[in-house]
Design brief:
Layout (H helix, E strand, L loop, with lengths): L3 E7 L4 H5 L1 E2 L9 H13 L7 E4 L3 H10 L5 E3 L14 E2 H4 L3 H8 L12 H21 L4 E6 L1 H11 E2 L14 E6 L1 H7 L2 E7 L2
Parallel strand pairs: 1-6, 3-4, 3-6, 7-9
Antiparallel strand pairs: 1-8, 2-5, 8-9
Helix pairs in contact: 6-7
């Protein structure tokens, strides 16, 4: 039975990551430390090859794709962006520990509407619909594999929504420049909308 592979890779390290800041919609580039770390990973480990490369439009993802896959043509996909943290962008948990609206948002499971951050339900719908479109294109065009360079929150949401084995989103965390390989069996995808998480990236 024919299967399709997609490799989900989180962008490299940014200064916001180093500083522990909430950054989603802010178009921050890779830190110099992040560029060095990606090159080290590329030199030490094997990143998968594929026929297609999909990338979030944010600088940190585009730069990551350029480092890891300099010879591949990128298809930039708007809805692969990270969650928008609204007024809490570029702030740390310490900055927000007394922010009642932020605490209410967290306690509501990030679905409180009384804030400027992207609602978790809306975010999940956005990235899952985007991924479904990518899968449909891969299957329709019979491309056996693809790479998606995106954000940690996007990867965790996709794996929690569709992945087998089943796990909570936070259990699918990955380091910068790393991620997961998934295998899609068309019959299972059409019937149950699930895929197998079979390996980590890089090998």
């Amino acid at each position: 039975m024919k299967t399709y592979k997609i490799h989900l890779i989180r962008h490299g390290l940014t200064q916001a990551n180093i500083s522990g800041l909430y950054v989603g919609s802010t178009d921050t580039p890779l830190a110099l430390q992040g560029i060095k770390a990606l090159n080290n990973l590329k030199n030490k480990f094997n990143y998968p090859n594929a026929g297609l490369l999909y990338v979030s439009p944010m600088k940190r993802c585009v730069q990551t794709a350029d480092i890891l896959y300099p010879d591949m043509k990128k298809q930039v996909v708007e809805n692969l962006k990270e969650c928008d943290f609204g007024d809490w962008e570029n702030k740390s948990a310490k900055d927000l520990e007394k922010d009642k609206e932020f605490l209410s948002w967290l306690s509501s499971g990030q679905v409180s509407s009384a804030c400027t951050a992207e609602n978790l339900t809306d975010f999940t719908h956005r990235v899952c619909s985007c991924f479904e479109n990518i899968v449909d294109k891969i299957i329709k065009n019979e491309m056996k594999d693809a790479i998606v360079v995106t954000h940690g929150g996007v990867i965790m949401t996709l794996l929690a929504s569709f992945g087998i084995p089943k796990a909570k989103a936070f259990q699918w965390g990955s380091n910068n420049g790393c991620g997961y390989s998934i295998r899609i069996t068309p019959s299972l995808w059409v019937r149950d909308h699930v895929f197998e998480v079979y390996d980590k990236v890089p090998e």
